[in-house]
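Morning, I've got a small favour to ask if you have a moment. I owe you a coffee for this, so here goes:
>
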Amino acid sequence: MMPTERPSTDRKALQINLDPRRYGSFAEIGAGQEVVRWFFRVGAAAGTIAKSMSAYDMSVSDAIYGECERYVCRQRLEDMLTREHNLNLERLKEERGDTTAFFAFADTVSARNYHGTNECHGWMGIRFQAHPRDEDSQIILHVRMLDHENAAQQEALGIIGVNLLYGAFFMNHEPDLLIESLLDNLSTSRIEIDMIEFSGIAFRHVDNRVMSLRLVQLGLSKAAMFGASGEVLQPAEVLYKKPILVERGSFRPVTHVNMDMLSAAQDSFRALDDVDADQVVTLAEITMKNLQANGKIDLKDFLARADTLAACGLTVLISDYFEYYRLAAYLSQYTKKRIAITMGAGSLAELFDEKYYTQLDGGILESFGRLFKNDLKLYVYPLQNRETGELSTVQNLAIAPELRKLYDYLVEKRCIEQLHSYNPEHLKTFSREVLKMIQAGDQEWVDHVPAEVASVIKKRGFFGCKHQAPESRLAAMLGPAPISMGSSINAATMSPVH
């Protein structure tokens, strides 16, 4: 087989069946036994399958795996994996543990119902031993099924399940290739993977934030999310029915301006009558364009941004939504509550530049119709002219004459609002200049970033900081080489000012 050849689903299933080391259980809820069916169909399944089961009735499922508030959720999947894998070890370890690497595969899925009214998604995972007597390893992922027919969704689910098992067994030492292989014999028009998590002994060197980036870079998902402690998050579970505030930026590095802009926007957003202040989800969003440098993504640079954002306690969204209206549409999938985006005045001026909307039949009007259709708000941070000291704000922003009435209309409707509770001392800070100061060894850079960010940058030698430890954690993990960019860039990106 050539290195670039993609084996068929049948061939993957048969190769697993013919591997005498692999033996385990399949537990599938919601869309039938779509994954295990491949192993029965290709033959030699007796050498692989210890047990196959489904538990469709909720009472039966609870009796086996314990009670759960929802049946298509991560907790139910974890319960299934734990029970099935432990049973295999209890029953079979002494008899064949020296020669067998045990596994448990599980999925809990909501495929398209008869009326087509449900969300089509599911959780899937495998807990396994990479080698006999090895400690456990695990891969968990969340999928969104995009086919319009139930039968097609079931087929796609079966294929991705086989891909996951094959990747876990034969590609666990190369997680990048494992992720890329998950859509073998499928396409992104049929299924999306918006969360993946690796854990256990086989993946002890894997940073799941990098794996989240890979999902977006490879086109398996348009967005991925991780928390301040580095844990990967499933967007729907974080954003569901919550008001959402987003700041888009390069965060290279995180500066006082970034945090001041977010703080001022939070004050205004939480004060709205229809926003529950305690429920607001705040996101720092980085687009793939912001992560590229000369057509490549540098993993050290990406993790430096991620770690400095983590130092500020921020949840990070990596997205392939270069236009703001696409970001708004993505977020509105998960909530009917208020959505707000905060940006600098310079970015607002770019938002009203018609050259960015030539790819839309309706031009700028279509873009704004999509952006503001769900009462989305834009909170605008002022931009200071260094020579004159004058501030560019919502009230005096230079807008093309033919768009002035449209702009005034959106301001009058309070779709666009000026932020007032900002700190004037931070207006002279620009991240590009701070980055140059860090790289030049100018110690005044510390005055432009939060103390916790300065500490992380100094300790780990981020962004070319001269006070680098002899061997940083990132250098040890990643080495010097950047990775190639896997997706094209749309010219309509709105770049941040600060």
